[in-house]
Every structure is written in C-alpha cells, then in structure tokens.
Task: structure prediction
Amino acid sequence: MSALVVTGTDTGIGKTVFSAGLVQALGARYWKPVQAGLEEATDSEVVARLSGQEVLTEGYRLHLPASPHLAAEAEGVEIDPAQLSLPACDGPLVVEGAGGVMVPLNRRMLYLDLFARWGAPVILCARTQLGTINHTLLSLQALRAAGCRVLGVVFIGAPEREVEDSICLFGKVVHLGRLPMIPGLGEAAARPGRAAGSDALARAFATHIKLDLIREVP
Result:
C-alpha cells in the first residue's frame, strides 16, 4: 500500500477523526496538503494527538478558515498544484482533503482535479444524517467522472442501515464500515499532548471499520 486519499461529502463530518483512526490502524504517515484555519488545533495536530503517528508538514498553511482558494487569496497568494505532489515516503500515507470533493484550490482547479492527478484510491466519508444520500451519490458520481478509483464509503454517526444500504445500492460502492461518534474525542484532540480518547478510537476502528478490505489495496 502506498497512498490513500480521504475525502468527504461536506465539511465538519468527521473525516479528520476517521483519518486519525486510519493512520493509527495502518501505522501510516499523514499529510494535509492545504490547511486553512490556524486559530484552533489544525487537522494535522488533531491526527498527531489521536494517532501518535508521524505527520508531514502541510503544503500550505493559511490563516483564514475558508475554502483553500479564498484563504489563499486573503493572503495574496495562489495555491500552485505543482507544489502538491504526493510526498514520497516508506510505508502507507493517508492524505486528507479539505471539505467536500469539489472544493476549489484556486480559480482554475478543484481538489477533485488533484485527486485525479494523483491516481491514488479514494475513501469517501459520509455522515448518516438527513441529506446524505444525495450528497454521497453526487460525490461518487463526480469522483468517477474524473477517473478516480473509489475504494469505498465510510459512514460516520449513528446507524442508519436503510440509508447506508441505499447509498451502496445506487452508488454501486463498497460499504467500508461505520464509525460511531465517540463522546469527548474532539475536545480531547484539541488539547496539547496525547489525546485521552485515542484508545477508544482504536477500539472503534477495530470493531466497526473493514480494515481487511482497506489493507488489500496494492
């Protein structure tokens, strides 16, 4: 296994926590190409605290918590996709996008275009709340139209079996498991030092995520 891309149907759905659990389970490194928003704990800091694994330096660190293209423009810069090639490293690498699939990097390129350029398999995170069928099917359609290889969908939240089954049926996609909400995990990860909930995250992953399917990726 080399690189895996983690993206989502929207922002704030828990894909950073999922990325942390995946990094921990695979003994992988983590990379966030563009971090927009520096006032609170960054995604890289959260993953480092929850996983205890190595985190690579972001390609861009931008202060404004907004879409990457807007955060960059606020600082008078433009994100250059040529500077966002996948890092070469030994062992698996988990790469987390920003927001949803079609978030702009600049005025000409979306994150989706970057995923297609990388050619790495993609895991799509979807929450189980109302509206997720539409958002997930549209995201799957966009990924496939761009030529991305979708490894499967991971659901985050309370169980909604009929919703999950509908997405897998209409989206013709593999169900990679459902990560339940872990109370207090976000607050713990925002504090400096090793997060107290990291063991709970590891247990949840071992119980609910189909790691055998993910590990089979060449």
User: Anything to note?
Assistant: The beta strands are 3-8, 29-31, 34-36, 60-62, 93-100, 122-127, 150-156, 175-179. The CA atoms of residues 41 and 191 lie 8 Å apart.
